[in-house]
């Protein structure tokens, strides 16, 4: 199957996942109301932040080495998988226990001791999330993107049915416990499929040297650090709003704005799944030009699509808040406008960080995320006050994102000779600014913003075509992203 097909099916599954996520958040916002929705946002965001410590770092490292050895030494696949599972299990036990025991302390830091019981319930999301993520990245490593698409789609359906169902009958606790059951069910299904189909392709041979766990952990540690720093970077403002304003209603408004601002993250997440193994494979085989071409393609296509998405979210911030969460959330539109800009730029950084990780340059995104987290934290403490309120958090994120983007441009050019022409950037930004300005004049009441937004998106593409920035050659480089081998596992 070609890379274009992978991206299509993964993208389709990701869109379904993103839609299901907004259904869950929209249902939670409407059923719980702004105050309890603010509490829900704090609990789930914090738990997923902690879960990413063990749910993604080691599995991503496993995926990188599985992809690198898939065609060179496929006999190492069982050893890599086994060592990663052991490391994941141990870390999972330690973090889950620590989070459960530390729930009272976390609640006090957030200045709301009443959160303790909910935090302890959410602790069980961590091991289930970690188990689910393990198999998701395992299928990435052996290039079974079709299976990822199926699992992603299944997860989407289940989380609407289970989380919203439990939330409807059990209110806040139901919305939280639903995450436990969804991850657990998807993990069990992935495990059964692996044992029935894929595990048989990789026989353990006693004469083959096992994969060293130190090599796996050495790669996983900085990735884990990056993921934790990045999740903290984009989530920190929510916790600051909760702690500084001490207003669950305001926290609920900001959580709604934060959720909608994540649209670019959802849409482009599929690209990270493909980019990591592609870059890992090309660098492992010393295909420098293929690496550069893949990064340039991803960088350019993301910029082309991110700009209109950010512009339209900013232009239709208020109708988006009302559409997803109801009229009481319209007051969060100002925060959404700034968050859309900041999170949009940070999405570019997040996706392209997987290019660095695939090439073994894991320290670079780690370093950028480290400084950005402290910058965002300081700006949030300064700007989240009674005067600016939740808008201050959005401003802090936007300022931080500008510095992160400049650093990203510098390192992409330095490490991969990847960049966009100044003329291309000017054309893209000009077209994006044009549709942003037009959005203030086209109707956005009710559901009209959907039609206006669709028209403006097409108008944006038409402008770029007229300016000769888009042509039929845009997708040609994607062929060079192919590893050149069948994606079916080989014994």
How does this structure look, described?
- With 491 residues, the chain is mainly alpha-helical.
- It has one domain.
- The chain is 80% helix and 0% strand.
- It has 17 helices and no strands.
- The two termini are 19 Å apart.
- The C terminus is likely disordered.
Question: How is the secondary structure organized here?
Answer:
Blueprint: H1 3-55, H2 57-69, H3 77-101, H4 103-109, H5 116-122, H6 125-141, H7 145-198, H8 213-245, H9 248-261, H10 263-284, H11 288-315, H12 317-325, H13 333-358, H14 363-383, H15 390-416, H16 422-439, H17 448-466
Helix pairs in contact: 1-3, 1-6, 1-7, 1-8, 1-9, 1-10, 2-3, 2-6, 2-8, 2-10, 3-6, 4-5, 6-7, 8-9, 8-14, 8-15, 9-13, 10-11, 10-13, 11-13, 11-16, 12-13, 13-15, 14-15, 16-17
Brief descriptors of the model:
491 residues, globular, mainly alpha
Work out the strand percent. under 5%
Overall tally of structural domains: 1
Mean pLDDT: 86
Percent of residues in helical segments? over 70%
């Amino acid at each position: 199957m070609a890379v274009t097909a992978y991206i299509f099916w993964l993208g389709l599954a990701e869109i379904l996942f993103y839609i299901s996520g907004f259904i869950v958040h929209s249902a939670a916002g409407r059923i719980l109301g702004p105050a309890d929705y603010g509490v829900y946002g704090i609990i789930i965001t914090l738990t997923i932040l902690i879960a990413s410590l063990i749910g993604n770092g080691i599995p991503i490292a496993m995926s990188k080495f599985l992809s690198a050895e898939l065609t060179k030494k496929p006999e190492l696949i069982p050893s890599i998988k086994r060592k990663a599972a052991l490391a994941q299990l141990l870390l999972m036990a330690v973090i889950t226990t620590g989070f459960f025991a530390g729930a009272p302390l976390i609640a006090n830091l957030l200045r709301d001791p009443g959160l303790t019981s909910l935090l302890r319930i959410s602790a069980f999301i961590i091991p289930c999330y970690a188990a689910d993520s393990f198999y998701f990245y395992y299928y990435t490593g052996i290039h079974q993107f079709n299976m990822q698409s199926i699992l992603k789609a299944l997860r989407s359906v289940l989380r609407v049915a289970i989380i919203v169902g439990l939330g409807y009958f059990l209110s806040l606790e139901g919305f939280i416990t639903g995450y436990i059951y969804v991850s657990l069910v998807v993990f069990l299904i992935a495990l059964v499929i692996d044992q029935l189909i894929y595990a048989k392709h990789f026989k353990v041979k006693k004469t083959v040297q096992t994969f060293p766990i130190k090599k796996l952990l050495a790669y996983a540690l900085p990735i884990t650090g990056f993921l934790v720093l990045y999740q903290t970077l984009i989530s920190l403002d929510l916790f600051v709003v909760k702690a500084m304003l001490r207003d669950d209603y305001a926290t609920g408004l900001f959580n709604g704005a934060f959720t909608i601002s994540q649209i670019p993250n959802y849409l482009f997440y599929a690209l990270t799944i493909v980019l990591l193994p592609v870059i890992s494979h090309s660098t492992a085989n010393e295909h420098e030009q293929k690496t550069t071409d893949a990064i340039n393609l991803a960088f350019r296509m993301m910029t082309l699509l991110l700009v209109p998405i950010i512009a339209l979210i900013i232009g239709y911030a208020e109708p988006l808040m009302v559409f997803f969460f109801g009229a009481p959330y319209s007051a969060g539109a100002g925060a959404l406008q700034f968050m859309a800009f900041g999170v949009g730029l940070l999405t570019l950084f997040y996706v392209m960080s997987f290019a660095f990780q695939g090439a073994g340059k894991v320290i670079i995104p780690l370093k950028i995320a480290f400084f950005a987290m402290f910058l965002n934290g300081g700006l949030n403490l300064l700007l989240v006050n009674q005067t600016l309120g939740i808008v201050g958090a959005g401003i802090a994120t936007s300022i931080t994102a500008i510095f992160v983007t400049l650093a990203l441009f510098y390192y992409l050019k330095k490490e991969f000779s990847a960049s966009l022409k100044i003329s291309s950037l000017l054309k893209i930004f000009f077209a994006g600014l044009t549709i942003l300005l037009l959005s203030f004049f086209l109707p956005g009441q009710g559901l009209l913003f959907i039609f206006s937004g669709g028209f403006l998106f097409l108008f944006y593409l038409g402008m770029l075509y007229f300016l000769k920035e888009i042509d039929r050659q845009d997708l040609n480089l994607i062929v060079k992203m192919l590893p050149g081998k069948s994606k079916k596992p080989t014994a």
